[in-house]
Amino acid sequence: MDTLGRILMVEDDPNDVELTLTALEEYNLANEVVVTRDGQEALDYLYCRGQFSARASDNPAVLLLDLKLPKVDGLEVLHQIKSDDRLKMIPVVVLTSSREERDMMRSYQLGVNAYVVKPVDFHEFVNAVRELGVFWAVINQPPPGSARKEL
Fold first, then answer.
1. Which residues 6+ apart lie within 8 Å of 12 measured at CB?
2. Which of 28, 81, 85, 126 is the most buried (most CB within 10 A)?
């Protein structure tokens, strides 16, 4: 039985994407990461629209969400997810460089599960992402009907 869940990462910075995948590879989680580069693409993925219209409709085990995104910002993505009965149970971890109190407050008001400020230091960043990935994709028990797959 495979209990790893898929991670949806919404991140427009290619360096942060690479660091995140590197951090997750150690636990063989990197192959279960879907990367979207802006808020609109993330919503298309979640709603199986556009280039994602043929994907299985199961939800990711966790969503790693940057706030400062092109097209649709992270707070709007979070608002749409938490307002939708089919998506609101997806755990969302904001992974952002924003230390602004209003961003943190708004994220929690919208129902985020965790708010992590990206460390500037490479090793701190890698360790933080690794711990997030292991917890949300391996340890945490998701709600029924999410992306866990039985093999």
1. 37, 38, 66, 68, 69, 70
2. 81
User: Which tokens belong to 89?
Assistant: 């149970």
- Mean pLDDT in runs of 10 for the chain (151 residues)? 69 91 77 92 97 91 93 97 94 89 96 84 74 72 53 31
SS3 13: coil
What are the structural domains of the chain? 7-139 (3.40.50.2300)
User: If DSSP codes are grouped into helix, strand and coil, which group holds residue 35?
Assistant: strand
C-alpha pair distances (Å), 49 with each of 22, 53, 150? 28, 4, 25
- Report phi then psi at 61, rounded to 5: -70, -30
Long-range contacts of 12-19 (CB under 8 A, 24+ apart): 12/37, 12/38, 12/66, 12/68, 12/69, 12/70, 13/66, 16/66, 16/118, 16/125, 19/122, 19/125, 19/126, 19/129
Tokens of 107: 């994220």
**pTM for the complete prediction?**
0.83
**What's the pLDDT at 3?**
42
One-letter identity of residue 39: G
Q: How far apart are CA 26 and CA 108, in angstroms?
A: 30
